[in-house]
């Protein structure tokens, strides 16, 4: 319609690396990624629908498919997690596509894709004029992290880049996330939230870098406010990919109202945005990460050709 300001969101969630640990966790996190991106765009948490697209290795037994039972078990776990998570988020699945033969044979070697679920979501936005930026819109704003940070780094981007193994990935709790999503949706609708960036690949460090780069502002952020920060390694706080989290900015004059609206929900004040074009993180009284916007932009634009990730 041309006479109102309603809009739609189209978001996606896909986390194939998590299938190396548990296809059920992979599916739940894919739903969460699509749903929280919808919330970050000002979407109504009660008005959204999903589509499931399964991309799976052959789960049917055959002489050339010796681990078919495992692939089928992974499919069962993914379907159960998909259903359970969608019920918590009141998210109907209105369509989808299943591709179950994603294998190739090269000589005597069978190559199979990771069990993968892509979740696409379409949702409703009451008023697109209230949609927050994904970037910090200016200096002098307060920055908060919403959601719980778990220090696990397993199957993270950091693990891939370092070529190491950091143990198990973070878990997920959709039932605990839903009240936070509703509170954030109210905050966006009430124009309390100026910018909102959901956290995914690369965790807090990547989200902060992208928020600074897009807004052409810096930020000075302190990790000590995060639970367990006194004993955690800074890398775990910076690069954890715990789901159901957001990095938001608010006006200083709205601080009391903002914090009151998230009372009883996980939210941590990290610091603020700055006119200096540099992103800084501090922990236990020392600077643990510092990057100029120029350096961030150069890294963002640098091709990754020649680097091989497992």
Protein architecture, described:
The protein is α+β, with helices and mostly antiparallel strands and 310 residues long. The protein has two domains: 7-129, 2-Layer Sandwich (60s Ribosomal Protein L30, Chain: A); 133-301, Phosphoribosyl-aminoimidazole Synthetase, Chain A, domain 2. The protein is 31% helix and 26% strand. The protein has helices at residues 23-40, 68-88, 157-162, 174-189, 203-215, 234-239, 255-261, 293-301, and strands at residues 7-14, 48-55, 93-99, 103-106, 109-112, 116-125, 142-146, 195-198, 218-222, 246-250, 267-274, 278-283, 286-292. The strands form three sheets. The chain has a seven-stranded mixed beta sheet with strand order 8-10-7-11-9-12-13, with helices on both faces. It has a four-stranded mixed beta sheet with strand order 1-6-2-3. Helix 1 (23-40) runs parallel beside helix 2 and helix 1 runs parallel beside helix 4 (174-189). The chain is globular, with a radius of gyration of 20 Å.
Write the layout of secondary structure elements.
Blueprint: E1 7-14, H1 23-40, E2 48-55, H2 68-88, E3 93-99, E4 103-106, E5 109-112, E6 116-125, E7 142-146, H3 157-162, H4 174-189, E8 195-198, H5 203-215, E9 218-222, H6 234-239, E10 246-250, H7 255-261, E11 267-274, E12 278-283, E13 286-292, H8 293-301
Parallel strand pairs: 2-3, 9-12
Antiparallel strand pairs: 1-6, 2-6, 4-5, 7-10, 7-11, 8-10, 9-11, 12-13
């Amino acid at each position: 319609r041309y006479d109102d300001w309603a809009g739609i969101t189209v978001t996606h969630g896909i986390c194939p690396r998590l299938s190396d640990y548990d296809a059920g966790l992979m599916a739940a996190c894919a739903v969460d990624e699509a749903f929280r991106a919808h919330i970050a765009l000002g979407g109504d948490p009660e008005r959204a629908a999903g589509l499931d697209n399964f991309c799976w290795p052959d789960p049917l037994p055959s002489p050339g498919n010796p681990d078919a039972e495992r692939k089928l078990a992974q499919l069962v776990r993914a379907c159960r997690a998909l259903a359970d998570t969608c019920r918590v988020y009141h998210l109907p699945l209105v369509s989808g596509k299943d591709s179950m033969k994603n294998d190739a044979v090269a000589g005597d070697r069978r190559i199979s894709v990771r069990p993968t679920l892509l979740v696409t979501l379409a949702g409703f936005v009451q008023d697109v004029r209230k949609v927050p930026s994904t970037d910090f819109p200016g200096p002098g704003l307060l920055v908060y992290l919403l959601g719980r940070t778990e220090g696990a780094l397993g199957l993270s981007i950091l693990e891939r880049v370092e070529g190491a193994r950091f143990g198990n990935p973070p878990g997920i709790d959709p039932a605990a996330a839903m009240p936070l999503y509703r509170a954030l949706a109210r905050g966006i609708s009430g124009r309390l939230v100026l910018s909102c960036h959901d956290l995914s690949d690369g965790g807090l460090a990547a989200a902060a870098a992208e928020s600074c780069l897009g807004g052409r502002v810096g930020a000075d952020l302190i990790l000590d406010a995060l639970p367990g920060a006194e004993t955690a390694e800074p890398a775990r706080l910076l690069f954890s990919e715990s789901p159901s989290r957001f990095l938001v900015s608010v006006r200083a004059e709205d601080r009391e109202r903002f914090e009151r609206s998230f009372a009883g929900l996980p939210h941590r004040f990290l610091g603020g945005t700055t006119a200096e074009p540099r992103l800084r993180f501090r922990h236990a009284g020392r600077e643990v990460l510092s990057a100029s916007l120029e350096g961030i932009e150069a890294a963002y634009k640098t091709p990754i050709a020649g680097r091989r990730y497992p």
